[in-house]
């Protein structure tokens, strides 16, 4: 039987950094919802007497809108005319860039004011950070599992090839006498 008649394994031609359209869409959709809720928390925080809590409310509104602008282009997925814009934004706003942004903006509101709305907003940002981290780690894990399936990261192929060599040497030794 020659090897050309055997079916070849199907290989994916996907981008190794791609976690899947559905997963990416849901994570970015969560970012949009979280951004809207963060802005609402900021507006609620504006109803205060304390100047530091007022500053924290303004901070939430500003960076909630920035978060919305970062995550909202996922809505353009359904518009074919906006595909070049979406591709450009995805090129520059990788998940690891968003993770760095979210981790940096977590600290100042808690330092300014500790209230329920501020803590809720920071938790929403942290969940958004965590989901983007899943996108970063997930793409690396996919590369690792593909390499493991090929045998690049496992010693099992080395031990099985040694066993085959020893078996063939024993077989040849038995044939020779």
Walkthrough of the structure:
There is one protein chain. The chain has 177 residues and is mostly helical. The chain has seven helices and no strands. It has helices spanning 21-45, 51-71, 83-92, 95-105, 107-112, 116-150, 156-176. Helix 1 (21-45) packs antiparallel against helix 6 (116-150) and helix 4 (95-105) packs antiparallel against helix 6. The longest helix has 35 residues, at 116-150. It is globular, with a radius of gyration of 26 Å. It starts with 20 loop residues before the first helix and ends with a helix. Residues 8-14 and 154-160 have low confidence and may be disordered.
Topology, element by element:
Layout: H1 21-45, H2 51-71, H3 83-92, H4 95-105, H5 107-112, H6 116-150, H7 156-176
How would you summarize this macromolecular structure in one to three sentences?
By secondary structure, this protein is mostly helical.
* Secondary-structure element order, N to C: HHHHHHH
Task: Indicate the mean pLDDT.
Answer: 75
Fraction of residues in H or I helices:
over 70%
Radius of gyration: 26 Å
The number of strands is 0
Total DSSP helices:
7
- Report the portion of residues in β strands: under 5%
Question: Which properties best describe this structure?
Answer:
177 residues, mainly alpha, 7 helices, globular
């Amino acid at each position: 039987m020659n090897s050309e008649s055997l079916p070849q394994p199907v290989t994916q031609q996907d981008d190794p950094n791609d976690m899947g359209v559905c997963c990416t869409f849901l994570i970015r959709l969560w970012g949009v919802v979280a951004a809207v809720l963060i802005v609402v928390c900021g507006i609620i925080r504006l109803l205060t007497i304390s100047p530091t809590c007022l500053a924290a409310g303004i901070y939430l509104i500003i960076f909630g809108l920035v978060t919305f602008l970062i995550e909202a282009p996922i809505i353009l997925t359904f518009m074919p005319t906006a595909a070049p814009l979406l591709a450009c934004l995805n090129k520059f706003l990788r998940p690891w860039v968003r993770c760095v942004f979210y981790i940096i903006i977590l600290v100042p509101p808690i330092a300014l004011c500790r209230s329920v709305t501020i803590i809720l907003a920071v938790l929403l940002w942290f969940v958004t950070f965590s989901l983007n981290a899943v996108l970063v780690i997930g793409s690396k894990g996919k590369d690792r599992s593909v390499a493991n399936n090929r045998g690049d990261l496992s010693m099992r192929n080395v031990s099985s090839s040694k066993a085959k060599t020893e078996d063939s040497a024993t077989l040849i030794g038995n044939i020779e006498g």
